[in-house]
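Changelog note: in this version the structure field was regenerated for every chain. One regenerated record is shown below for reference.
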Amino acid sequence: MNINLDLLISTPDDSVDMKAGLASMQGVSDAVRCIAESILTEKVPERQSSKSDVRTSLKKSFKGSYGHIFTLDLYSDELKRKLRKIGTPAFIELFSYFINESLYRETNQLSEKAQLTLNNLGETANKIVQQLRISALENIHEISTKFNHDIQIRYRQNRDIQIVLANFDNNSAIVLKATQSPQRIELEAVITRLNIHTGNGRLQIQGEDETVAFGFGIEYKEVNVKAKKVFSENLDYNNGIDREKWKYLKITVSPIKLNDGRIVKYIVKAFNEN
């Protein structure tokens, strides 16, 4: 059983530096295998082995910048059964979700089946994101940081339809260098998205139009019940009402910043209802 994918490196002449290209391809393979194995086994692998029941296989190349088809292959009947239960569409959604989460990007609303699978992963979902940042995503960006080539991972639904699952470029490479500041700041914000199983979500600061990722910096089971209730109730209250009527939370946070000062995520330290 396999899933058909491809990677596309944007180059002007259908060729790519071999060393950097191979490093990026290795990163793609590691990311795909990490996400797949974690979802299907509910355990995050620290390293990929050639003996694993979840592997990737290179297939043929194709024209159009530098493109290469590959497959995600399952060699275990149990894992095949789990994938059939989840369904390929939901699995593909989750692949895109985890890549975007690891790069602090806002994700699309998941389908019911994909969301249920994510919920069942619980804290494992956070561990997947952490593992992707260790090496896979840095390797993927090798071709971007050294040669300024963009790269895509796509799902090949059929010969004519390829769905982009993830984009990588110099900007996303910079995000991997984000570090948490010891600084604590106060802000007023509404909760626009919240995963009640992981504690991660998005918030929108008063007066701003863009949302920013947030989390609690500890396993969600360690967060006190009052905090969980306040954040989920704020999301429910503001859902579907006019912005002028939004109810804001006063939150003390520690920002995760890029070298240029941009904030990609807030870690919640304390809160007060406004």
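Spot check on this record: Residues 2-175 form one domain. The chain has two domains: 2-175, 179-273.
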